[in-house]
Design a protein that fits this description.
This protein has 250 residues and is α/β, with parallel strands linked by helices. The chain has an eight-stranded mixed sheet, with helices on both faces. A two-stranded antiparallel ribbon has the order 3-4. Helix 1 crosses helix 10. The longest helix has 15 residues.
């Protein structure tokens, strides 16, 4: 499975992506988590200590024109083997770069290498039997610029608000324009089945699954710890486990 989690900011992408990655790993999959979000999130949802400088920065160099490029000899396999961070349950995490107090300029080498890697993942036979779970930045921009070119399934998260629904609609149109992909809507932070159905009506998509609004998620995010470690039997954690089961069957 090659999966990208997308949606509006605050829809819960990092929590869902991190929890799914660990659930798949616990079931025996080799899992690579890809974090292209410029804001912190997936590291905490997985349970990884944030790195000071992006590890992929070491794989970048500047050409004669002063533009960043990937160092010779660094392909997707070597990038993962050298620069991915180990996470709980055997997940490997590869990150682009996070916004710094000086903006994105200090980490642009890492960002460029990451983008190069994700463009070539699909063609790397090494990852054919891996499960890949990507966490994209909020909104449609990264989907439009193919930051999840590895993905054959896009998990579209939406809350029961119009802003979230309208963003989800736009992302769905952009993703489908590339062809050959599946878009699955997940209603997040809902109260019941009726609430989830309302999200489907607002977005204009059938609801593949829904995750309840759960205080345990808020508590885990405040503590900066994974939901699976903070409250493994919480309603939201159980819902993500069921979602993983449905995705595997699907």
């Amino acid at each position: 499975m090659k999966l990208a989690v997308v949606g509006k900011g605050g829809a819960g992408k990092s929590v869902v992506a991190g929890t799914l990655a660990r659930v798949f790993a616990r079931r025996g999959d080799r899992v690579l988590a890809l974090d292209s979000d410029t804001m912190p999130g997936l590291t905490y949802s997985l349970g990884v200590e944030p790195a000071g400088e992006p590890l992929l920065q070491a794989a970048a160099e500047k050409n004669e024109a002063g533009r960043w490029r990937t160092r010779k000899g660094i392909g997707p396999v070597r990038a993962v083997q050298r620069y991915a961070q180990p996470a709980p349950d055997g997940v490997l995490l590869l990150q682009s770069g996070k916004t710094t107090p000086e903006g994105m300029a200090p980490v642009m080498g890492s960002v460029n290498v990451f983008y190069d890697v994700v463009q070539r993942l699909r063609r790397a036979p090494y990852f054919r039997d891996w499960t890949i779970v990507g966490d994209l930045s909020a909104g449609p921009r990264q989907s439009a610029y193919r930051w999840a070119d590895y993905a054959d399934t896009f998990l579209l998260l939406a809350e029961p608000t119009w802003k979230s629904a309208l963003t989800a609609r736009r992302i769905a149109r952009i993703v489908r324009s590339r062809g050959g992909v599946t878009v699955l809507l997940v209603a997040n932070k809902t109260r019941n089945d009726a609430d989830a159905a309302t999200v489907g009506e607002m977005v204009g998509e059938p609801v593949f699954g829904w995750i309840p609004s759960d205080p345990a998620v808020v508590q885990a995010e405040r503590k900066g710890v994974p939901l699976l470690d903070h409250a493994p039997h919480s309603p939201a954690a159980r819902a993500v486990e069921q979602l993983a089961e449905r995705l595997s069957s699907h």
